[in-house]
Amino acid sequence: MYDVIVRGGLVVDGSGGPGYLGDVAIQDGKIAAVGRIEGGAHRFVEAEGRVVAPGFIDPHTHFDVQLLWDGAAKPALEHGITCVVPGNCSLSLAPLRAADRQRVIGMFQQIEEMPPAAFTEAFDWTWEDFAGYRAAIEKSLSVNVAPLVGHSVIRLWVMGADAQERAATADEIAAMQVMLRECLDAGAVGLSTSFVDVDENGRPVPSRFAQFEELDALSEVLGEYGRMLQIVPEFYAIDITIARIDQLAELSLKHNIPTTFSPVFDSTATPDNVARTMARVEEQFARGARVWPQMQTRPIDISFSLLRPSLFFARLPRWVRILRQPLEARIAALRDPETVEKMVADLGPDGGERMMGRLVVRGGDGAPAELTGRTLSDIARDRGEAPALALINLSLEHGLDVAFLNANAGHEVTERIGPMLAHPLVHIGASDGGAHLASFSTYGDTGYLFSEFVRKSGALSLEQAVAKITAETADIWGLKDRGRLETGKAADIVIFDAATIGRGEERPAFDMPGDGMRYVRAATGIDTVLVNGQVAYAAGAYSDARAGVICV
Amino acid sequence: MTLSLQRRFVTPGPGETVEEIAARALPDQDQGAAVDAIRSWNLHIFAMRRPPGLLLGSDVVFVEPPVG
């Protein structure tokens, strides 16, 4: 008698091979058999007319804090995600001394656009070391977690404030190696570092003060465990990205470790960049290095209002400073003619037409309904104002509660992206799940993979697409029990309708601690999600199952 | 497997200045010209960064112009 039999579906097992009609039997959280299965079960899940696939793995997320109050990483799980990798980009919530918490919260706020209340209002911060963080999230996981440990926080742990001032001494590097070992022993899947990020004061994050020798020493420790090194390169500059690929290749070859870098974006403004990136990646793989470029499926859409800071203004320091002020002070600044004159001047002689003219009023908030869908350029013309001034004044007229959408700001040409995603060395990921809350939805990238690149463009077959986000991801990250429907593997399973799987419309949700708003997308076409053999999501509802584990 | 030619770069040593990098990476060039060249080849450090010119241990510092 099995615990569960998933019956009569099209089994797409993650290998990339053709799907076939069959059943999947589950016992004690593991896959017990695949094929035509006779015999009984305590529970049958009917999958006729549906695809039965391994659970999807999301390798680039920032669910570090959300997992403390939401063990399902909602809505990731309902999109079929059964394993998430938090701790990317040099930032994790452990190891971290109490005295350094505020500093790291500031980094999450700046880099990942997460509200401070998310770190202070929804849980008791009881841990400092990695084992303590693991214990804190492990109690109520519905999704599996393969957490990275951040280089910046390891540096902070060892060097204190000096981590953002100088190179480490030999003794400090040795202490970082000890700490990294401790984290890996406690379940970290690898180390993340960043070459681009700054904190809320504009200061480079600690990892950027490290000499290459420090990263080499930490990679030596990763080599003892065969675990991952993730980096954020200077993705805006192709020559630097290639230099980072070469550095990663050196570390991969020397220490026999997998490495990955993200994001890799396509832009029609620099149409050769992805091709140059992949040419170098191919050369390095031919040498035996493992340097996996991560590419997201979705186009770049950024929404914002003047209620919150936004990465949309990242290149406008004055705007960032003003929008980071408390609400009353912010409104006062936006009402001050002298300040506004300077803000508009920051946009250059066209008054913001080039940067802001194509923005569209999203609607559904404080904006008058008749403005919904209109461009700022159009609205500004009607008002007789420069676009930047119209943005400020329109926002002020409605309590700043006017959301603008900068749609298709890159990575949006399906005919270009499809073949890139299908490239055998491209690692599909970079969702940023759990971050950039008020800028865009980081949920639904897997659904978009199937709707846009399997059904619409045909760039990938159903089986290829499943393999990319299951078995291939598990292999890249060394998650030995995940990613395939094979006897003995963990029973992480998603059952979906190949004809309708996709992502819903982006909509605001107000379900974050404090005043936290975030954009989300619902899933379409997902019937049932099992995590370690237990039904975690079915028929549009989450269950009470808490079968998720730390799955290194 | 021979790698294709890419731009040469160095990374700064602890506390190293752009003048010291220039002397190390471009020893045959006039010091002032070498510093100017390095500044012009590394706008991500010497123009885009705040404060401009803050050298970090992890930086990629190109020591030649873009490969044509």
Rg for CA atoms of chain B = 12 Å
Into which percent range does the helicity of residues of chain B fall? Answer: 25-40%
The biggest sheet of chain B, with number of strands, parallel, antiparallel or mixed sense and barrel status, is:
2 strands, antiparallel
Number of helices of chain B: 3
Principal-axis shape of chain B equals globular
What's the mean pLDDT score of chain A?
A: 96
Q: If you had to describe this structure to a student in words, what would you say it looks like?
A:
The complex is a heterodimer of chains A (552) and B (68). Chain A has 552 residues and is of the alpha/beta class. Among the domains of chain A are: 71 residues, Urease, subunit C, domain 1, CATH 2.30.40; 102 residues, no CATH class. Chain A is 33% helix and 18% strand. Chain A has 18 helices and 25 strands. The longest helix of chain A is centred in the middle third of the chain and has 18 residues. Chain A is globular, with a radius of gyration of 23 Å. The longest helix of chain B has 11 residues. Chain B is 34% helix and 6% strand. The mean pLDDT of chain B is 93. Chain B has a two-stranded antiparallel sheet with strand order 1-2. Chain B has 68 residues and is mainly alpha-helical. Chain B is globular and about 40 Å long. Chain B has one domain. At the A-B interface, helix 6, helix 7 and helix 8 of A face loops of B.
Structural features:
heterodimer; A: 552 residues; alpha/beta; Urease, subunit C, domain 1; 9-stranded mixed β-sheet; 6-stranded parallel β-sheet; 18 helices; 33% helix; 18% strand; globular; B: 68 residues; mainly alpha; 2 strands
